[in-house]
Amino acid sequence: MPWVGGKKALRDEILLRFPLAYERYIEVFGGGGWVLFHKPAGDFEVYNDFNANLVTLYRCVRNQPEELIAKLEFTLNSRDDFEQIRSILRSKVELSDMQRAAYFYQLIRQSYAAGLDSYGAQPRDMWSRFPLIRAASARLQGVIIENRDFEKLISQYDRPESLFYCDPPYFFTENYYEDVGFTAADHGRLAGALFGLKGKWLLSYNDCAQVRELYNRPGIMIEPISRLSNIAQRYEGGKLYEEVIISNYDTTERARQHVQLSLFDSDFCAGEPP
Questions:
Q1: Phi–psi pair at 98, nearest 5 degrees
Q2: Which helix (H) or strand (E) holds 146?
Q3: How many angstroms separate the CA atoms of 221 and 21, rounded?
């Protein structure tokens, strides 16, 4: 599902930096769930987001996918419908969870760059998404879906065997998101919550002086990484967006194990001459 700040472009790199051993996976700022859906299913997984409409959508996808599909089956891709639905959701009028989920999904699919604000004016085949909704429902069956403030969630699920993946609103982009409950002051609150954890955590951020200063501590790894800037591609091909991956553990152990396995799988080890 498209989502502002989604990690489609970095999901492989993020998974490569996961620790080899952990028993509990908690995605603190779930958003579009790109990392959760890309990773192998685990015994204990938590998806969390502060946006109540988004969480309602995921719960309906998990628990009642056919009912959601029925609600979406005859939706219209039109500016009038889009603006009416946006107005209804912003009015906080009482709706059933299923109707709210269907409206919100339609808004995501039909808005410009999934920003929820302006009509995208692009052809969208809603029916082509139905197999993905069913697949997402199957993947989410064992996932706990939460709608909590990040600090309370982190405290609740912290264990030595926990892995927290955090993809918060980036510095200077806090106003890009609707209903996230995250302000500029919350960057420091997030850092404070992470520094005190028993478990491991991995954090993706924009590469800026504020982030580097906030996480410049002993035992904290800060790794720069680049990805293509999707929006800038329309005006400047090949434009890169600079980010950082921050963690409280050694993120190279999985890559090093892969290199070791590759050496042991060589022709030389199979009895062939070097």
A1: -65, -40
A2: strand 143-146
A3: 18
Contact 169, 177 (CB under 8 A): yes
Contact assessment for residue 206 and residue 187, using Cβ atoms and an 8 Å cutoff: no
Cα–Cα distance, 166 to 205 (Å, whole number): 9
Classified by CATH at the fold level, domain 11-204 comes out as Adenine-specific Methyltransferase; domain 2 (1.10.1020)
* CB proximity list for 92: less than 8 A, separation 6 or greater: none
The answer for residues whose C-beta is within 8 angstroms of residue 59's C-beta and 6 or more apart is 97, 101, 145
Structural domain boundaries in the chain: 11-204
Using one digit for the tens of pLDDT, what is the confidence trace for 249-258? 999 887 777 6
- Greatest CA separation found in the chain? 74
At 27 the three-state DSSP class reads strand
Give the pLDDT score at 87.
Answer: 95
pTM (2 d.p.): 0.86
Dihedral over Cα of 74, 79, 81, 86: its sign: positive
| Tens digit of each residue's pLDDT (9 = 90 or more) over 5-17 | 777 888 999 999 9
Angle at 94 between CA 90 and CA 95, to 5 degrees: 95
Scanning the chain, the segments in alpha helix (DSSP H) are: 11-16, 34-38, 52-63, 65-72, 79-90, 97-110, 130-139, 150-157, 186-195, 209-214, 253-264
Strands 200-206 and 240-247: antiparallel
Of the candidate ranges 68-72, 75-79, 166-170, 173-177, the one whose mean pLDDT is the lowest: 173-177
According to the 3-state scheme, what is the secondary structure of 203-260?
Answer: EEEECCHHHHHHCCCCCCEEEEEEEECCCHHHCCCCCEEEEEEEECCCCCHHHHHHHH
Sign for the CA dihedral angle at 79, 85, 86, 91 comes to: positive
